[in-house]
Amino acid sequence: MTRGKRPLHVVDERTDEQLLADHVTGDPTAFAALVHRHLNYLYSIAYRTTGNPEDANDAVQDALLNAHRTAGQYRSDAKVIGWLHRIVVNASLDRIRRNRVRPTVPLPERVGTELADPTDHTVAVDLSLSIGRALDVLPAKQRAAIVAVDIEGYSIADAAILLGVAEGTVKSRCARGRLRLAKVLGHLREC
Predict the structure, then answer these.
(1) Are residue 85 and residue 137 in the same domain, yes or no?
(2) How far apart are the C-alpha atoms of 15 and 95, rounded to whole Å?
(3) Contact 30/67 with Cβ under 8 angstroms?
(4) What is the model's pTM?
(5) Looking at the structure, do residues 123 and 96 belong to the same domain, yes or no?
(6) In tens digits, what is the pLDDT along the chain, a chain of 191 residues?
(7) Is residue 105 included in any domain, yes or no?
(8) Given 48, 72, 100, which residue is the final one in a domain?
C-alpha cells in the first residue's frame, strides 16, 4: 500500500457489540462496519421472509434505518446479530402486511423429474422455486417461524427470542406451517 492512500476494504476487528456501542457514542464509521459485516445475512433473512427481492431490499433498508435510530435502546443481554435479525424479520412482516393483496401464481400440478439429466441443475432450481412459492402461501408469522427454524436452523428457543413470541407459539406456527407446506408440495412426492 502506498503512503497517503486508504485501502479499499479494511476489516474492523471490533466485536458487533463494540461496534454498536461505538456507534451510540458517536463513532461515524461503526454502524457502517456493522452493516457491512452482516448485510448479506440480513438480506437473506428478508428475502426468505418476503419471497420478493424488492420487498427484501426495502425491508432491510427499513430495518437498518430503525436499528440506526434505536441503537441506544439495545439491551446487551442478547447478541447484536439476534437484535438485527429480529428487526429485519419485523420489517419484512410489515412489508408483507402492506402488500397483503398481491396476485399469486398457482403451482404446477406435477414437476416431472423422471427423465431428468443428473448433470442438469434445472431440476434443483425448479424445486427451489417450488419451495419458495410454497412459502409464499403461508401466513407471514408462520413463514417467519419456518424460515427461522427450518431454513436458518435456529432452535425453537432462539427463534422465540428472535420473533418476540413464546416457544410454544413458535412450535405451533412451525407445525401449522409444515402441514400447509406438505399439502402445497404434496405433488413432489409423486415424482
Answers:
(1) no
(2) 30
(3) no
(4) 0.57
(5) no
(6) 444 444 445 678 899 999 999 999 999 999 999 999 999 999 999 999 988 899 999 999 999 999 999 998 888 878 999 999 999 999 998 888 887 655 555 555 554 445 455 565 565 555 666 666 777 788 889 888 988 888 888 888 888 888 889 999 999 999 898 888 888 777 666 55
(7) no
(8) 100
